[in-house]
Amino acid sequence: MQPKYILAIIFFLTAFVFNHFPAQNLSNSTLSNEEIEKRIDENSGNPVKMWELINFYITKSKKEQNNEALFYAYRYASVNSTYPTNLKYADSALTTAKKSEIKKIVIDAYLNHGNINMAEEFYEKALNDILVANKLSQESGNEYIFNKTIYYIAQNKIYLGQYEDAHKELLVCLKYFKENLHIKSSLGKNYQVYYIYSLMSLIDCNIKLGKFDENKSLLKEAFGYINENKLDQYIPYFITSEGMTSYYSKDYNTAISKFSEAIRLYNDQWEHNTEVFYLGLSYWHIGKERLAIKYLEEIDKHYEKTKKLDPQFRSAYEILIKYYNSTGDTKKQLEYINKLMFLDRSYEKNYKYLYQRIVKEYDTKKLVAEKNRIENTLQKQRIIFAAIFLSLLTGFLFFGFRIYREKQNYKKRFEEIIARQNSNEDHTENVITFENGIANTPKFDYEFYNKIPGLNPIFVENILKQLETFEKEEKFLDPQISQKTLSEELGTNSTYFSKIINTYKGKNFTLYINDLRLDYIIDRLKNDVKYINLDVKELAAIAGFSSTDNFSDNFRRKFDLKPSVFIKMMKEKM
Which of these, 478, 473, 475, 509, lies nearest to 494 by C-alpha position? Predict the structure, then answer.
């Protein structure tokens, strides 16, 4: 398990370590802060309820002028938000902690701020925050926070490839969290989570260092603990660790089996690119090049979508370049060469800065000569970095100008939406034809239904046909529809259903449902005059959206046009 993904999931998985409690009405102001936090954790799978509780926590803390509780409320908001909202909440948490003048939460606030920055790949800012937390925790004698900072500094070491140093740090914090497992989790503390993730990171370091024998006892310890404490959600992560051990031991078939098993067992919102990447490498090493390329191209799709890529996945592009060179596809080869060149420039900048900072501020007495060498190298490369910055700035300005121009052309967008809707109406389905009185039914397209490794093509075809019926019967208008309920109705589980939606609909479940609802509303507005006189709130309710804002945001996402503007232009057209 790589540190980047550990940071991304650590707060999400914390929720599972608590027992479930009966729900209480939020109007009951007698709830203690600890009870509120437990209810937030138990509703991690229900974003609406979870945010209702978080907002209640924030409001209650402000009303009581309790800065300590307000800090923890803001921290919950930061780790459950997406960029850039998560950073805004992290800023608020840090500001509140400073106002409280309580040193332990000031330290925790810096650490939380660093975690959020690290998750968003702002490594320079993250390291600054973590080093501040480390220094303050030493001064205050707060062992819990101090060991948390040791853990996160180790993650930076792993990111830099300094596995020996990271190994030493992890042994220290693992020992501390393990020895304190008997302490019940209290406000702001969770020894169990950091024990488990220290184990994960230590196993990862050992894999990179070739210490496979040491990992045997660590994996036994990990599986024993999670089974004893019924923490099944952690099992696939350690199965991945077994797969990594097999991969680096060159036992590629076992690695494939372990990574595939881990992917089947995951039941969360993450993409798990580590497993996908190493499946690609494993298939490449056993000579199944086409299958390997399918997995490695999934890594490229992730980069295209996020414009971010962990350095560990860099070799995916080397293999893609090599493969398309062998097939004579120069267009693809050039595409991946350009991407790799851009990624290398980004990696070089981030790696050198982080390496310089850790040597200077954390390991001051170590590797001074290496630090000076890096500083000299960075001095020579400032002109190159400035040129890259100007190129990126020019690109952003150009993109911004295009958006500005597009917003002036509402009429064109409107016509495109109408044309698209007309095109959808003209679409006809395949029908059975007859020849000499015998029906010609379409042949089963095995390749089409065999796009998802591990899923039976007939099973996939059955799910897709049921989805056609689901769309025709307009069941997507039900505001209570969810991925879980629909997958159960179609006779599958949420994980398989999610893979089918993403692969065959080209989007996740939420976008799939919302796009169906939007197309439905466009059709009604175009063909039924009574809908033109309804306001946006009424249209949102008819389409099954949870709120007007949700409807408007999705409308703008899909059509790049406000629904109110579209309705106005429909009236003008009529």
Answer: 509
Radius of gyration, CA atoms only, the chain = 27
Which structure tokens are listed for 512?
Answer: 């799939």
CB 457 within 8 A of CB 446: yes
Distance CA 325, CA 254 (A): 29
42: left (phi over 0), alpha (psi -120 to 50) or beta: alpha
Tens-digit pLDDT profile for residues 6-24: 544 444 444 343 333 344 4
Question: Token match 């007007």: residue?
Answer: 548
- pLDDT greater than 50 at residue 432: no
Q: Which residues, 6+ apart, have CB-to-CB distance to 556 below 8 Å?
A: 562, 563
Q: Name, in order, each residue with C-beta under 8 angstroms of 204's C-beta and a sequence gap of 6 or more.
A: 1, 2, 3, 158, 241, 244
Output the six-digit token pair for 115: 């975690």
Sign of CA dihedral 560, 562, 565, 566: positive
Say which residues have a Cβ less than 8 Å from residue 526's Cβ, sequence separation at least 6.
418, 421, 570
Integer Cα distance of 155 and 169 in angstroms: 10
Token pair 């060991």 in the structure block, residue: 147
- Tokens 């007859």, residue? 434
Closest alpha carbon to 59 in 74, 49, 47, 45: 74
User: Residue 543 is encoded by which pair of tokens?
Assistant: 């389409």
Question: How many other CB atoms are found less than 10 A from the CB of residue 242?
Answer: 21
Q: Where are the beta strands (DSSP E) in 54-133?
A: none
Q: Are 215 and 223 in contact (CB under 8 A)?
A: no
**C-beta neighbour count of 62 within 10 angstroms:** 14
As a whole number of angstroms, the distance between CA 149 and CA 131 comes to 8
Q: Is the pTM of this model over 0.85?
A: no
- Residue 506: Cβ within 10 Å count: 10
* Two structure tokens written together for 333: 């080869």
For residues 315 and 292, give the distance between their C-alpha atoms in angstroms, rounded to a whole number: 13
Non-local (6+) Cβ contacts of 6 within 8 A are 155, 197, 200, 201
Report the C-alpha gap between 146 and 434 in whole angstroms. Answer: 77
Mean pLDDT for the chain overall: 82
